[in-house]
Amino acid sequence: MGRMLNALSQRDLELGPARDVEPTGHFRVAKDDNGVVWMVLDRTDKRVNTIDRPVLEELAGHIERFEKERPAAIVIRSGKAAGFAAGADINQFVGASTAEIKAALDQGHQVLDRLAALPCRTIAVVHGHCLGAGLELALACDRRIAVSDASLGFPEVMLGLHPGLGGTFRAPSIADPVEAMTMMLTGRAMPAKRARSIGLVDAVVEERHVAAAVEAAFYGDLRKKSPSLQARAMGYKPGRQFAARQMRKKTAEKARQENYPAPFKLIDLWEEHGGNPRAMQRAEIDSFAELIETETSKNLVRVFFLREKMKGLKDGSSGVKHLHVVGAGAMGGEIAAWAAGQGFKVTLGDIKLEPIGGAVKKAAKMLEKVLKDPLKVRDALDRLIPDPDGLGISHADLVIEAVPEKIELKHKIYAAIEPQLKEGALLATNTSALPLADLAAGLKDPSRFVGLHFFNPVSRMQLVEIVSHDRISSETARRATAFAAEISRLPAPVGSAPGFLVNRALTPYMAEALVLLDEGIPKERIDLRAEEFGMPMGPIELTDQVGLDIALDVATSLRERLGENTLPPAPDWLTKMVEEKRLGRKTGRGLYDYDDEGKPKKIAPEALPDNSKDDPDMIDRLILPMLNAVVACIDEGVITDEEIVDGAMIFGTGFAPYRGGPVHYARQRGIDGIVQRMKDLAAKHGPRFEPHPGWERLKG
């Protein structure tokens, strides 16, 4: 059955004479009447193509034959519907020594060098994802034809690396060098048309025109663009030095060199060796092998596998085709827009028309940023249907309630919704803190009730907490988890407990920052210290982003439910700011003031007075209470899988990815040392720093 479905999926792909050839390994190879060889990469052991040693060894065998037979031309493309190749198989490097990694890279480079040196025309045809080592394989060919749906990129920087199979010297020599470097430095994928504009690919065509484009490339009608004046200037060191300074400045705005060395190392390599491909190749291999041994890379590789594990929590289909969202506020509107952008039919209801109109307007802006294609945006907006009368409820497979955190209001809404739900439909709440058992109290069928806790903004925060309760059915939990994965979010199953996992852990971090601010430490310095630790945003700015009113509500609720010793009391001035509607970014004023673009007006760190207060304990005061709350959640069974805990905290709070997650960081730092440090802080600052008993059990 699987073979038949695979064959059907390939009917739309132009595979030349290789269509009907059985694979002899990972490739299917056949020659057409013009002497053009079609090589179709179609791994028999994986759903998507990846590039690893067996693939490269098999490719080397074919190249050896071509060196002797001298075909008229060679076409390399994928037989997988998903795309050309998803990059290198990172598993091949896990546990390998530096010498073994260098040897493997040397062998890979030799294969691609031989491909590049073949006397016949070589043509890569790419569709779907063409990433990392997959793109490096395409770059070793003479010409690249991209199908219009192709997405090309070098995501290695996300693993604490840079390209290691020739990308660092081939991409800048083929495409606009500054644009190619930017691709590698950011890790962002590029759509086909944009790749054509910078010279990375030679043509963009629809799938039905692939054969004609191959013919044009074969007969020479598909010619490379001449390099621009800027590109020619980058062949000389002074030009690269100027560009490198700009690159370092931009990169430093996003990442710190001490935490994320790979992009800075790549800039150094290009500045020094960019005019000499052979020297760049040698430097690339040495640098890649060194970087993969760093703690940053090891931890970022761990994060990659955490993401894969969370994706793998999906078990079957959710069965959701139509989603109805109740509440068109900030969260409800974004949930609806995101789901519509992911291909779901969505109806959006609210008791007033005005919020629905505002939500659709914001949805258009968000979808333009995310989808970047006017046709896709149009289609997504067509799927997002304003529904002030709630007509979609009776047709929906899933109804998500996203109204203010007032239990009486939610009960009233459930009482109106539940009788309208069709058989098999799920009812979910986006509550961030209310106990699900309390919310489910009035339901006739609580087995189909679940928490789907999204994070703001939905378009950027990848985590969704799947919140259970004692009367939920396993099928409801399974379907809710599957739905989160189907809308390209990462599910984390948690029990219903105060704050669940993320808010329980994040609130002490934010609350302690306010104590530090109350002690007279400048807010910019507090945020800077947290960012130096690796957080994407400091706790003061984060509090403004969340909203001072929401932060105050959550902190007050958690303190009441967990005990007064778990969190410091909210400062009186915070309550006053909320009363004055100085709520943070959403009102333009909060702990910071905000400009017209919504950016905080901060005093530069170097402009802060030298005598302004600081606290050498600051990072531990901010981070250790967060770790303490995470340990409490594990110990209390809110969530027990340490890897999912780390993934949830990275993808839900931005916890320093290069540290591998809070539990991993704690184990690397040493549990005994952390426990003693917390006892010292408790003696100095109060019982909120007392280590949870779960630390001792975590050691076991």
Task: State the gist of this model.
This protein is 49% helix and 12% strand. It has 700 residues and is an alpha/beta fold. The protein folds into three domains: 2-293, 2-enoyl-CoA Hydratase, Chain A, domain 1, CATH 3.90.226; 322-494, NAD(P)-binding Rossmann-like Domain (Rossmann fold, 3-Layer(aba) Sandwich); 503-637 and 670-699, Orthogonal Bundle (N-(1-d-carboxylethyl)-l-norvaline Dehydrogenase, domain 2), CATH 1.10.1040.50.
Overview of this structure, please?
α5 crosses α12. This protein has 3 domains: 292 residues, 2-enoyl-CoA Hydratase, Chain A, domain 1 (Alpha-Beta Complex); 173 residues, 3-Layer(aba) Sandwich (Rossmann fold), CATH 3.40.50; 165 residues, Orthogonal Bundle (N-(1-d-carboxylethyl)-l-norvaline Dehydrogenase, domain 2). The two termini are 47 Å apart. Helix content is 49%, strand content 12%. The N terminus is likely disordered. The longest helix is centred in the N-terminal third of the chain and has 20 residues. It is built from 29 helices and 18 strands. An 8-stranded mixed sheet has the order 13-12-11-14-15-16-17-18, with helices on both faces. With 700 residues, the protein is an alpha/beta fold.
